[in-house]
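#struct-pred
JK: can someone run the complex with calcium ion? inputs below
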Amino acid sequence: MIGINIENQNNVKSRSISSGELEDQYLIDDFNNDGMADIAVRRGNLIIIDTNRDGISNLAFTFGYGNLERGYYTSNGGIAVVRNSSIFIDDNFDGLADRSFSFGNGNSESEYIFMKPSGIAVRRMDYNNLANHIYVDYNMDGYSDVDFFFGNGASENQYTHGFMGISGWALRRDYVWHSYTNSNTYSFGNGNSEKGYFLGEYVGGGNYFMGILRGNTIYYDSNMDGLSDGNYSFGTGLK
Ligand SMILES: [Ca+2]
Ligand SMILES: [Ca+2]
Ligand SMILES: [Ca+2]
Ligand SMILES: [Ca+2]
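RT: done, structure tokens with the ligand placed:
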């Protein structure tokens, strides 16, 4: 089915939607807690999730105010919304927040980062003028537990947590990922010309590997050699 008329959850359950470039966002996490990463797509405030990698939706619900929100993220298999300094997380996909708290300085933060599998951080511009000061709240109680400096802030292409090394912090410069804790680098895909890089439990076992989005397909590298080992597809690709 082509998704052009799909605009609410009643129209998307058990449908296969594969083309049309309708998605505002792709989100990767293990939403059904079976240990394997799933694909969700967001259209405004409509979230559609495929939990068994067959390209056909299993869950659909609305949450938050869509593109009016600062951002949609995932946290430990739930969908999170950041609205100024408030965080709302829907863990059971009924469109109602099950967890909420406040963290950071809201819209003045350079970035909110949701850590894998859980935890939250803000990346902040402060006295060093680089926006590379990261404040981490491991237990999501709204209070920072540790802070550190990493990379060059706004000039980096992406920050992420859950990958490459003990602390799990890494940043991307085009197609090269750099670890915070060691000098290791990891290269995958074509960098900024990809539609996005996403960490996920693509092969289970509690390990996070990198995937890249092309069209409506996630290609993942599960042995860190920079070559794709598998792929699966959902949704219609980004707008
Ligand atoms: Ca799953
Ligand atoms: Ca809920
Ligand atoms: Ca904390
Ligand atoms: Ca590989």
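RT: quick notes.
The radius of gyration is 17 Å.
The chain has no helices and 20 strands.
JK: thanks, will look after standup
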